[in-house]
Specification:
Elements lengths: L2 H11 L2 H4 L1 H19 L7 H12 L4 H12 L9 E8 L5 E8 L2 H14 L3 E3 L8 E10 L5 H10 L4 E4 L3 E6 L4 H10 L6 E8 L3 E2 L2 H15 L4 E6 L1 E2 L2 H9 L1
Parallel strand pairs: 8-10
Antiparallel strand pairs: 1-2, 1-3, 2-9, 4-6, 4-7, 5-6
């Protein structure tokens, strides 16, 4: 499962974050709005909002932008925009399965955009539940290993109910049951560890492995979906080999 983290690291090294700063701010803003709408504007009691704000700060989002997003979500700043979360399920080439989470203010734009992205790369959207059964929902945290030694991270994770703590080189990953999310988030916050990624993620029950060329084609599809304005996350069941990761990094 660590391939997910390595792929994110490669994208950061290639400068994708800097090149698309505006798109990143848009996604972070929507996450803050949704979090504040569901759990209120108090960062101390709304852990999803706190993590969304932490992500925004890590990306150097201006403080005023963060505060406005919180007010919008809490209903204190009504601008007429209403966001909703939609999860799409679909099949890609070579028997691959995908789950795509979105936050949108216009369902009539998001649905055809998603359908086009799937069909362009030989995939197709599926009915609700057709793909979801192939995935398990888990709490996930990833943070730089420079913030905490692995031994200490492993002990912390096990003590607060993690299923696994993985040393992926420059990154430490924590996998845990959904119900342990807040406990682990609080534990990391208390020791001043700030995850690069955190949330409830979908992990495949069984991965499929493709040859390098097919993996590259598949990841181009994933990138195209990720670049849609309304997309928050893309989860899939393709195992990205070390050879494919090397080819992606060189591309």
């Amino acid at each position: 499962m660590s391939g997910h983290s390595k792929w994110k690291t490669i994208k950061r090294k290639k400068g994708a974050a800097d090149a698309k700063r505006g798109a990143i701010f848009t996604r972070l803003t929507r996450e803050i709005v949704i979090s504040a709408r569901e759990g209120g504007s108090d960062i101390d009691s709304n852990f999803r909002l706190r993590l969304a704000v932490d992500k925004a700060r890590a990306e150097n989002m201006p403080k005023d932008n963060i505060e406005r997003a919180i007010k919008r979500g809490a209903g204190e700043d009504k601008d007429g925009t209403v966001f909703e979360e939609i999860t799409f399920e679909g099949y890609g080439p070579h028997g691959s399965a995908l789950m795509v989470t979105t936050v949108t203010d216009n369902r009539n734009r998001t649905v055809p955009d998603m359908r086009h992205a799937f069909s362009k790369y030989g995939g197709n959207m599926a009915d609700v539940g057709a793909v979801g059964w192939q995935f398990d929902r888990q709490s996930y945290f990833a943070f730089p290993s420079s913030q905490m030694p692995f031994d200490q991270a492993f002990e912390l994770g096990i003590n607060v109910g993690a299923d696994d703590v993985v040393d992926s080189g420059e990154t430490i990953e924590i996998y845990a049951p959904v119900e342990s999310f807040k406990t682990i988030a609080d534990a990391l916050h208390q020791v001043h560890v700030h995850p690069d990624e955190s949330g409830l993620r979908m992990f495949p029950k069984q991965e499929i492995e493709l040859d390098v060329e097919s993996t590259l084609k598949f990841m181009r599809m994933v990138e195209a979906i990720e670049e849609l304005d309304d997309v928050q996350d893309v989860f899939h069941n393709v195992k990205v080999s070390d050879e494919a990761l090397a080819a992606l990094e060189a591309a």
